[in-house]
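Sequence in, structure out.
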Amino acid sequence: MREEWEKRLNHIRIRKEEMNKLVMNFLVTEGYAEAVAKFRMETGTKPDMNVAMIMDRMTVKKAVQCGNVEDAIEKVNDLNPEILDTNPELFFHLQQQRLIELIRNEKIEEALEFAQEELAPRGEENQSFLEELERTVSLLVFKDISNCPVRELLDISHRLKTANEVNAAILTSQSHEKGLNTINNIHSLSLEIVHPKLHSLLKMLIWAQNQLDEKATYPRIKDFSKATLENPAV
């Protein structure tokens, strides 16, 4: 069965232009500006936005990844003030990350003042913001962070989460500016623009396999990184 399945797959033809567009979409979304320029030169595939816009976005993302949140906020406002004005959740998360960085650097008085002046008013307006603020401030209670139940806030992974959030917001804004949010595709914008299409296709493939598992026996893909098929269980 596996050999027959592979034979059928080998007969499927995908146009090289479509594959190139898929690769370009990944490079643009993930912000590999140099790779975008090189790939365009080698294949003639045009990106949805110019390299300068990609580099602007990556500058902000890297600032957050390095803990320079105040600088990142300034850069976002330079690009488009409406990004934060129209996304209070993103702005709160950036301000929360600023507070985390102050705590990380043991600037306790500055952290308390910042929390009281900048974040507390937002917590009064939004219950989820208040809960997040309380979790963040609780970092100050523990001298030994290893015993803190919310120590994950100090992990680099939390920086990356915030950086990815602001990256997605800027990407959406840049796509709007390029006129990609027409009436026909405005619904798909939030689903496709902020994540590489490869990501969506992989999720669709996993879903399809899970559905097929309930109805048939077939050579399924076990290792998606290598796209290797495994023989069906007898």
